[in-house]
Design a protein that fits this description.
Blueprint lengths: L1 E5 L9 H15 L3 E7 L11 E3 L1 E4 L2 E7 L3 H11 L3 E4 L4 H13 L3 E3 L5 H4 L9 H5 L1
Parallel strand pairs: 1-2, 1-6, 2-3, 6-7
Antiparallel strand pairs: 4-5
Helix pairs in contact: 2-3
Keywords: Transferase
Pfam family, one: Glyco_transf_4
Organism: Xanthomonas perforans
Length: about 140
């Protein structure tokens, strides 16, 4: 099968979501599945050729993490050509929301996971103004 994994964070970032997503990707590949990872481009990125890198923005006090910006149209075009059998959204930020819209538009099964209460971290990173949006 061919899977797409959508995530805001991925190694070399070191956090629970990045490590969990990398473990999922590795496990699927080990079992013979094709996996495309969709994530924000990081500085000095050395992504494999099957990764789709999108634009991202940093939080004021967490420059090492870039959350993905919405990319619905780009994802629709990409997934029309790659035709994943299913999509997993690991983080439901702006990139994750646009991935769910694109999957729905194309009729591709999509599942999400809840790994982090980002709304609780936002004040620590100078983005308390995003708490209401994060809770929706």
């Amino acid at each position: 099968m061919r899977y797409a994994i959508v995530t805001e964070t991925y190694p070399p970032e070191v956090n629970g979501v990045a490590l969990t997503v990398h473990g999922l990707e590795t496990g699927l590949r080990t079992r013979g599945h094709q996996v495309d990872v969709v994530r924000p481009r990081q500085s000095a990125d050395t992504a494999p050729t099957d990764a789709l890198l999108v634009r991202g923005a940093s939080l004021p006090r967490y420059p090492g993490l870039k959350f993905g910006l919405p990319a619905t149209q780009r994802l629709v075009r990409h997934w029309r050509s790659t035709q994943p059998d299913a999509i997993y959204v690991a983080t439901e930020g702006p990139l994750g929301w646009s991935a769910m819209r694109a999957a729905r538009r194309l009729g591709i099964p999509v599942a999400t996971g809840f790994h982090t209460r980002f709304d609780e971290y936002l004040p620590d990173y100078g983005a308390a103004w995003l708490q209401g949006t994060a809770l929706r």
